[in-house]
Amino acid sequence: MHLQISPSILSSDFANLERDCEEVAGSADWLHVDVMDNHFVPNLTLGLPVVEALLAKVSTPIDCHLMIEDPDRWAPAYAEAGAKSVTFHAEAAAAPVRLAREIRNLGARAGMGLRPATSIDSVADIIPELDMVLIMTVEPGFGGQSFIDAMLPKIQRTRELIGPESDIWLQVDGGIHSGTIELAAEAGANVFVAGSAVYATDDPVAAIDSLRAQAQASTCLR
Ligand code: DX5
Ligand code: ZN
């Protein structure tokens, strides 16, 4: 299965966002854009106007991670704007199936994220409605936190539910770096978000290449 690296621009230089996005073009599969509303998480980042500005400038497809309340109301606009993947949180969506269908009808992949305390079994029935399940491996809200090892059985369980050869992707986000990506890949993840491990280094492209090589060497998906 194709493994993908999605660098999180949360750890990039917001005063040089275009430069930092372009720097990884050609090596990153996606650009992971963390939208936070200071309600769903205790942090505030950026919203639709900045995503629209990036979409106009950047060639790498955008993977929007919406850490916001009321995604039923706000998420479709990101798909409409041209984000190729839009992920809302299970804990915030009132009608996740309806929302996922709406996102897909607007031409984007629909993802659903789970905070560490949310069980995958509680949402297992709606996985077929999704294009991606995001297992958060930290509490959402900030970059640079430590990977929560207790999420590994949840990643494994999610892979069991999705199956090995599925078009539904399994993304992990939070604390992914050279010391943890192999664990996540062995457990069944195939899309890896990395913020500080890419942008807090001298060479983001080399960091992406090295993470990809590690994931490929450790994947359970052959
Ligand atoms: C955190 C965000 C992540 C964050 C990851 O809530 O969803 O995407 O940028 O940062 P690292 O990779 O540094 O843990
Ligand atoms: Zn994220």
Describe the protein's architecture and organization.
The longest helix has 15 residues, at 204-218. The chain has helices spanning 17-23, 48-57, 71-81, 96-105, 152-162, 181-187, 196-199, 204-218; strands spanning 4-7, 31-36, 62-67, 85-89, 109-114, 132-136, 169-173, 191-194. The protein has one domain (4-220): Aldolase class I (TIM Barrel), CATH 3.20.20.70. α3 runs parallel beside α4, α5 (152-162) packs parallel to α6 (181-187) and α6 packs parallel to α8. It starts with a strand and ends with a helix. The chain has an eight-stranded parallel sheet. It is an alpha/beta fold and 222 residues long. The model has no long low-confidence stretch (mean pLDDT 97). The chain binds D-xylitol-5-phosphate and zinc ion (ZN).
Short description:
The protein has one domain (4-220): Aldolase class I (TIM Barrel), CATH 3.20.20.70. 34% of the residues lie in helices and 18% in strands.
